[in-house]
C-alpha cells in the first residue's frame, strides 16, 4: 500500500500550530530549545501528523526514543491494561510483578556472563546520577573519567560528566569535583591534534592523553569509574575504534574501577544489537538505559553486575522510577525489539547506510558517514581536505527537510543524525534519502 506521508497541505507552522506555539512561548520556560515548529497531533509507526493535517516521516523519533514507532498498538494496549489496574504504588517501598519481571529481563539481556541487578529510573540523566553514586559507593573512591563530546543528561552530576556543549554548564557551577575529561577516539576528527585533518591515529592520540593524566595528575587506583558512551550520541554519532573501548575495559580491570556504558541513546536495539557494547565486543560493568526502553514512556535503568551493585538497603531509591505503566510499556517494547525490530534495524539500517554513502559520493559537503543499524550520523564539512565542520548548516537542513515533510535532528558540531523508529522499511528509507538529497542540493555550498 502506498504511504500517505510525507504530505504537506499547509506550510508549517499552520494556523493551529501557530496558536499552540504562541501559548507555549508565553508560558513555558525559555530554556527549552524547540528545534523547529513541529506541533504534533498524533503518530502511527514512523508517521507524525501535525495539528494542521500535515504528515511527516519521522527520522528523529523524538530524539531516538520512539523505538517501536509512534503509538504501537501492542505498547498502547500494554499501557492501557496496566493503567486500568493501578497507576502507582512506589517501587522503592513495595512490590508488583511487572517491576520484577522487567528487572529480570534486563538483567538477563545485559552483556557478559556475570549475574546482574537492575535499578529503574525515570530518565537517562537519573540513571547517570545513580551510577555516579553506585560507583562511588562501591569503590569508596571519588574520581571519575569522562570524555570530550559526551552527553549524559542535564542534572548536576550528569552535566559534570558531560562536555558536548558549554551552554549545558554555563553559570550552573560549581559542578561535581573529581571528574577528569579525556579525549574520545573520533576516527574522523582527532580531538587532540591541532590539525585534525592530518592526524592518522586519533586512537593513539586519545590514549597518550590518558597515559599522561595517569602519569602526571591522577593515580589510577583513585578512579572510581569510567563513564563512556560506546557511541557518542549528542556529540555527533561517533563510533570509536574497538581498541579504544577495550583500553578502558583493561584499565578498569587492572585498577578496580567501574566501567559504565551510557547506552541511553545507543541501547535497546537501535544499532541492530540490543546494546552497542555487543557491536563493539566489550562488556561494561554497568549499562545505563532510557530513551527507547519504553517506547516513549519515561523509564530508565541502571543494569549492573551483581558484584558491583553492592549499595545497601535504603541508600538509593525513587518515587516514580519503574512506574507500573512504564514497566508494562517496556516489556511490550522489548518483545517487539527482540521479535523483529532489532533485525529490521540491521537490514534497513544497512540499506540506509548504502544510500547515504551514495549521497556522499554526490555531495562534497558530506565529510563522514558513521554509525550502525538505525543510528547513523551524516557529518558535514566545508572542505573535505581540511575537514572543517560546516557550522550553521544543520539548522538549515533541518528546516528545509521539515518543509518537505521529513523530520531530522542534528548532533555534534555539524552532523545530522538519522535515528528513525526501528519500524521503518526500505520505502521509508528511500523517501528520506530522496528528501535528504534534495535539501543538501538546495542549501548553500561552500565557496
Ligand atoms: C547518552 C545519553 N545519556 C543521557 C541522556 C539524558 O537522558 P534524559 O534526557 O532522559 O535525562 C541522553 C539524552 O539525550 C543521552 O543521549
Note down, in words, how this protein is organized:
The chain is an alpha/beta fold and about 450 residues long. The chain contains 12 helices and 16 strands. A hairpin with a 4-residue loop joins strand 2 (about 45-50) and strand 3. Helix 3 packs antiparallel against helix 10 (about 325-360), helix 4 (about 95-110) runs parallel beside helix 10 and helix 10 (about 325-360) packs across helix 12. The mean pLDDT is about 95. The protein binds pyridoxal-5'-phosphate (PLP). The site of pyridoxal-5'-phosphate has 15 residues, from helix 5.
Summed up:
The protein has 2 domains: about 15-70 and about 340-440, Aspartate Aminotransferase, domain 1 (Alpha-Beta Complex); about 75-335, Aspartate Aminotransferase, domain 2. The chain is built from 12 helices and 16 strands. The protein has helices spanning about 15-25, 60-65, 75-85, 95-110, 125-140, 155-160, 200-215, 240-255, 275-280, 325-360, 395-405, 425-440; strands at about 40-45, 45-50, 55-60, 115-120, 145, 180, 225-230, 260, 285-290, 300-305, 365-370, 375-385, 390, 405, 410, 415-420.
